[in-house]
Specification:
With 187 residues, the chain is α+β, with helices and mostly antiparallel strands. It contains 2 helices and 6 strands. The protein is elongated. It comes from Shewanella oneidensis (strain ATCC 700550 / JCM 31522 / CIP 106686 / LMG 19005 / NCIMB 14063 / MR-1).
Length: 187
């Protein structure tokens, strides 16, 4: 083998090592991009799951409040978006109320407090509610003793199956609408 052939052969070996390193880096970068995308998808899924859990909690909360105030059951019916004004009388002993409330006052306080929970009024950052559902609308329908509570909110992205027949609650949310519906009987 001549001196030229040996130098050329060594040059190819060095070049081949550099190509191997570049290929390994490309494979590593592609793998890291996949991991980052998986992380983003997992965070979105976690948020969607959290929102659904919250909606379930809020629906059951108002049902329990209605069970404790059966005489005003029909007056709980309506659509709620966070627009109720605070009642004159606070009827929640959990926050230190010492006055007795009528069933009508209790119903007004229940709806106000429940609506404030749904919009996340207890947790704010920079004057914006951050503790509740994203753009919530809640609907309560009462037919005799049958109570249907629907809690709708806006999901992160458009999803399949967002057209829910039979319940128009939160339809203005469009294709990103998510909804949780509970139907029960209160005797």
């Amino acid at each position: 083998m001549t001196k030229f052939e040996r130098l050329t052969h060594q040059g190819f070996q060095r070049g081949f090592s550099l190509i191997e390193v570049l290929v390994a880096l490309v494979i590593l970068v592609i793998g890291l991009i996949g991991i980052f995308n998986l992380h983003i998808v997992a965070k979105r899924g976690s948020f969607e799951s959290f929102q659904q859990t919250q909606a379930s909690y809020y629906a059951n909360d108002i049902i329990n409040r209605m069970k404790l105030n059966r005489t005003q059951l029909a007056n709980y019916s309506g659509e709620y978006t966070g627009a109720l004004s605070k009642p004159n009388k606070e009827c929640d002993v959990a926050v230190g109320a010492v006055s007795l409330c009528s069933s009508v006052e209790t119903q007004a306080w229940d709806l106000y407090q429940w609506e404030q929970s749904i919009i996340g009024a207890a947790e704010t950052v920079g004057g914006q509610n951050v503790g509740g559902l994203d753009s919530p609308t809640a609907c309560i329908d009462i037919d005799g003793t049958t109570v249907t509570v629907a809690v709708a909110w806006r999901g992160i992205r458009e999803g399949a199956g967002t057209t829910y027949s039979g319940n128009e609650c939160g339809e203005d949310l469009g294709t990103r609408r998510r909804i949780f519906v509970v139907s029960t009987v209160i005797i």
